[in-house]
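Figure 6 in text form: structure in, sequence out.
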């Protein structure tokens, strides 16, 4: 089978499965992104491993279609954040900065403590296995938050702006913690400069996309829909 036909078939399966799962989740009064993530886990290597099927295995590359899927996923996230920008009130997003910081701080501290405590209960040593369990629970996803707020029509509200801002700050805190656990010999100041600088660049690009997107539509226009 030709490579182009493999790509078309894979896209058909992925898009159809995601749409059906999203529609089913919506009927159950859940965000459609919940169903899309669930079907992604089902089709992934943990269960069905769709990219390992003979139909989608490429003879010219050991990686098969995985690099292409990863590239399309990155493009999808960029498009999602652009659409989120069409719905975001950037001025309001700036006004909730302090509140968003404390929301993000709580969103990192509570899962960290709770995860570490559960790890200790299950017999893991506090340093560093239990703390690592708590740290991985601090991770969030800006794109998932944006998609859920979009579906709820809440991106232009103060609460939506707070959640979106907190998700961005939460990502920075979580990655700094994970990086510190991975390389404990690095001084925290150096780590914050290295990781924080990279994350600040990503945050700048995120807000740039939000600003460009929101500038294309007025605040009083109808919400953008798929």
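Output sequence:
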């Amino acid at each position: 089978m030709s490579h182009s036909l493999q790509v078309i078939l894979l896209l058909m399966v992925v898009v159809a499965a995601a749409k059906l799962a999203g529609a089913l989740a919506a009927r159950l009064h859940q965000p459609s992104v919940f169903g899309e993530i669930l079907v992604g886990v089902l089709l992934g290597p943990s269960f069905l491993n769709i990219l390992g099927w003979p139909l989608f295995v490429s003879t010219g590359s050991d990686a098969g279609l995985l690099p292409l899927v990863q590239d399309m996923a990155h493009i999808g996230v960029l498009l999602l954040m652009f659409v989120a920008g069409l719905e975001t009130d950037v001025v309001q997003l700036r006004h909730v900065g302090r509140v968003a910081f404390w929301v993000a701080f709580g969103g990192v501290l509570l899962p960290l403590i709770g995860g570490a405590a559960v790890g200790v209960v299950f017999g893991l040593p506090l340093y560093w296995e239990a703390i690592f369990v708590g740290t991985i629970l601090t991770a969030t996803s800006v794109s998932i938050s944006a998609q859920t707020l979009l579906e709820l029509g809440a991106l232009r509200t103060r609460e939506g702006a707070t959640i979106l801002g907190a998700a961005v700050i939460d990502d920075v805190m979580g990655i700094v913690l994970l990086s510190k656990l991975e390389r404990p010999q690095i001084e925290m100041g150096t780590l914050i400069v290295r990781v924080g600088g990279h994350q600040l660049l990503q945050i700048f690009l995120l807000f740039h996309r939000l600003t460009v997107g929101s500038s294309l539509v007025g605040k009083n226009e109808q919400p953008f829909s798929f």
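Caption detail: Residues 85-215 form one domain.
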